[in-house]
Design a protein that fits this description.
Elements lengths: L5 H27 L6 H13 L4 H8 L3 H13 L3 E5 L7 E5 L1 H23 L3 H26 L1
Antiparallel strand pairs: 1-2
Helix pairs in contact: 1-5, 3-4
Length: 153
């Protein structure tokens, strides 16, 4: 078997990355059932689930989105019964975004499903394969962090 060129390796990496994303997305879709959520809607669900209720501006900061974009996103999530807008008891001028009880249950199911998926994947790897993957992921993460720092300067 001949060695792959750098370009062939890069194309193989990209293809595997997209396949992995597609399969994880399909697993999440099975967990969500009839609740079809976009990537940003899922990120909002995850953010509110992990970090708790917040105002529109703060949610925008957490997600890296403008307040107007978040407002439209929240309108769609509210229509689907995922979030509620409530007045802050300590400052009635402020609107808090919270997950509905059903959305909190959904977030727990998604988290458990993703954890189960990762555990299944990890147990199928040898220790050497796992260590090699972690080394590769660490290199990729460091490069992305470096690139992000350069853009922010």
């Amino acid at each position: 078997m001949s060695e792959q060129t750098d370009e062939e390796l890069l194309l193989a990496f990209i293809k595997r990355y997209h396949t992995l994303r597609r399969l994880i997305k399909a697993d999440m879709a099975r967990t969500l059932g009839d609740m079809h959520l976009s990537h940003m809607q899922l990120m909002t669900l995850k953010t509110l689930s992990h970090q708790g209720p917040c105002g529109v501006s703060e949610l925008g900061e957490r997600l890296g989105l403008s307040a107007s974009t978040v407002s439209g996103l929240l309108d769609r999530l509210e229509a689907k019964g995922v979030v509620e807008r409530t007045r802050d008891e300590s400052d009635r001028r402020k609107v808090l975004i919270t997950l509905t009880p059903e959305a909190r249950k959904m977030a727990k199911r998604l988290h458990a499903s993703f954890k189960d998926l990762l555990e299944t994947l990890v147990t199928s790897l040898t220790r050497d394969d796992m260590e090699a993957m972690l080394r590769g992921m660490n290199v990729v993460i460091r490069q992305l962090e470096k690139k992000t720092e350069e853009v922010e300067r």
